[in-house]
Amino acid sequence: MEDRHSAPGEEKMNFYEKMRIVCMAIPEGKVATYGQIAMLCGKPGNSRQVGYGLKHDLAGPDVPAFRVVNGRGELSGAIHFRIHGLQQELLREDGVDVLWNGNIWRVDLKKCGWKTTVEEAERFQRLFAKMAK
DNA sequence: TCCTTGACCTACT
DNA sequence: AAGTAGGCCAAGG
């Protein structure tokens, strides 16, 4: 039982459902980090679960997983796409510059990172609360 | 339960 | 720039 310990009125939507909402909101031409998504889901510190969820398709189909990179702008999940090189290609189609540094593909977060505010994060929390009602 | 594994993160060199 | 150390935490064995 999952919400065995939840108090009355407490959040009922699970992490991966929230992940889907947040990922779908990443603007075209921008990228988000695992930590940023975890935070927007109301779970700062759960960045590893974002990667886990994407790897196992727990956020549902057609989520733009290719727009998710690590905190240094590296395409650390590229290896896990069905087709080799797919993430780079999709980002390029998005208009994002992807560079090979001799070891791993990366993007410039300063330039194409999705900038989110605390207000925006709070708006997501209210949305989740409403959806779980 | 305890232990290991990871599409991670920050701080520090 | 790139590498390391320590921390993080859900999942699965």
Order of helices and strands: HEHHEHEEHH
Main sheet specs: 2 strands, parallel
Spatial separation of the terminal alpha carbons: 19 Å
Provide the residue-averaged pLDDT. Answer: 92
Gyration radius (Cα, Å) is 15 Å
3D structure, described in words:
The protein is mainly alpha-helical and 133 residues long. It has six helices and four strands. It has helices at residues 15-24, 34-40, 47-55, 86-93, 109-112, 118-132, and strands spanning 32-33, 68-69, 99-100, 105-106. Strands 1-2 form a two-stranded parallel sheet. Strands 3-4 form a two-stranded antiparallel ribbon. Helix 2 packs across helix 3 (47-55). The longest helix has 15 residues, at 118-132.
Keyword list:
133 residues; mainly alpha; globular; DNA-binding
List the helices and strands and how they pair.
Layout: H1 15-24, E1 32-33, H2 34-40, H3 47-55, E2 68-69, H4 86-93, E3 99-100, E4 105-106, H5 109-112, H6 118-132
Parallel strand pairs: 1-2
Antiparallel strand pairs: 3-4
Helix pairs in contact: 2-3
This protein binds a DNA duplex (13 and 13 nucleotides) through helix 2, helix 3 and strand 2.
What's this model, at a glance?
The protein is mainly alpha-helical and 133 residues long. The chain has helices at 15-24, 34-40, 47-55, 86-93, 109-112, 118-132; strands spanning 32-33, 68-69, 99-100, 105-106. A hairpin with a 4-residue loop joins strand 3 (99-100) and strand 4 (105-106).
